[in-house]
Amino acid sequence: MRINTIIFYILLATVFCNISCSKDWLNEKPSKNLVVPSSIKDMQAILDNDIVFNRGFSSIPIICTDYVRYSDADFGSLLQEDQDAYTWKKTINYESDQSSDWTFFYRMIENANLVLDGVKEMESNHEVKFIQGQAHFFRAVGYYYLSQTFCKPYVKGSANHELGLPLRLTSNVNQVEKRSNLQQVYDLILSDLKFAIENLPNTVMYNTRASKTSALAMLAKTNLIMQDYNEAIDYANAVLQVKNELLDFNNEQLVSSSNTFAFPYLGIDNPEIIFFAMGFTGNQWSGKGDILQVEPSFYESYSEKDKRKAFYFDVTDDRINFVGSYSGDRYLFQGISTNEIYFIRSECYARLNNIQEAQDDLNLILKNRYITGEAPVIEENDKIKLLKIIFLERTKEFPRFSNIWWEDLRRLNLEPEFQRTMKRTVNGSEISLAPNDPLYIFPIPIKEISLSGIEQNKR
At 36, is the pLDDT very low, low, confident or very high (cuts 50, 70, 90)? Predict the structure, then answer.
């Protein structure tokens, strides 16, 4: 794939390791001897660097949810930062005082800005707009994921008064930004995605590239987080007008529990994949025999007629592991797929009292997940009860898919009807995390605080 850019990647990786992979990205100075990419081909090669834009997505929030567990024996083998996150400690001792979650997404943003700065002097045409659209998409993705980890949950009306992120709109690494407010972060995300949908085609050659459809899907995700349900429906509809396929879990040509990995490799041939990305971070990997396990009660919540139970999980001795990633291998799928868009639309329909439409979307998903002819038919007409069913099925649909579990906990805790206190026992001691606890916001790495002087999150 992309043979013509492989050599360029090798050279470019050296440049980016100096500029962007540094742990001290805010203060790292570029060498005067570095070659600056200047052609459309160069810019596309930067955007096609999947190490920067598609691999290594955030995954540490997953171990903060109570659907997963480590045995006491395995817990001691974790990195200190994973132990701190898993036990909801006030202080997280990041390895080398730096968070890979923070570094990865700011590296993505830095490289998107490098492209945007690189095309500023070019005459606007179709190719330039395509490059710009991709870069705006990736910058929005970076800020979206950072906001779900290092900022408070979005609340309309108060976001202007909450801490946001350092918003970098240029590739000039000498320019150090203070933290914006949270509303400014979301305004930038929305603005970048809206620019992207105006300048990208509906579909693209590779599922790792940005498209209009993936930008629309990110707008649906973002508006769901912002509780703008009408907008979320509109964007979900726009996505599903272009791409509405669901993977039938009864289709043995595409998915099979007898394979080492049930789903198509790298999302190729998976009709649900809108945008492909994945994460691989230490103890958050997926696979048979991994030390990160699934809570038995969660595993048992699946019906034996629900094919997700066989495709998503492996039971070996006393371990229940998640193995069914849409990445098609051990790594976590961190992209966007049509099943998520159907769930977004179903929830938003229910919230707006479009009960039949909400039921239709949910039943369509379940029909493709259960043994043929065995799917339950959801006919609940009470809005709150229906939403709780949607949330339960959403949780069962997305174990270790992106950070959906974590994002849902944060946003649903804002509503008393859907709040949940998480509990777990570690080495004989029970610990809990209450709804809306400040610990739902990760601390910014100490090294970034010392280098930039930005304000730390209060936990």
Answer: low
**How many CB atoms sit inside 10 A of residue 205's CB?**
10
Going from N- to C-terminal start, the domains of the chain cover: 3-452
The C-alpha atoms of residue 297 and residue 300 are separated, in whole angstroms, by 5
How many other CB atoms are there within 10 angstroms of residue 375's CB atom? 19
Place of tokens 């801490």: 163
What pLDDT band is residue 400 in, cutting at 50, 70 and 90? confident
The CB density around residue 27, as the number of other CB atoms within 10 Å, is 14
CA distance 247 to 272: 6
The dotted CATH code for 3-452 is 1.25.40.390
Geometric angle at alpha carbon 62, from 444 and 137, rounded to 5°: 70
- Which tens digit of pLDDT belongs to each residue from 256-279? 877 888 999 999 999 999 999 998
pLDDT value of residue 1: 41
Q: Which residues contact 372 (CB under 8 A, 6 or more apart)?
A: 250
CA distance 201 to 210: 9
Question: Looking at the predicted structure, is the pLDDT value of residue 348 above 90?
Answer: yes
Q: Which two tokens stand for residue 47?
A: 């955007």
Q: Are 262 and 287 in contact (CB under 8 A)?
A: no
Q: Alpha carbon 364 to chain centroid distance?
A: 24
Length, in residues, of the chain: 459
CA 196 to chain centre: 18
Note the pTM of the prediction, 2 decimals.
0.91
Residue 335, CA distances (Å) to 187, 267, 278, 340, 412 in order: 22, 10, 7, 10, 22
Alpha-carbon distance 73 to 284, whole Å? 17
pLDDT tens digits along 293-311: 999 999 999 999 999 999 9
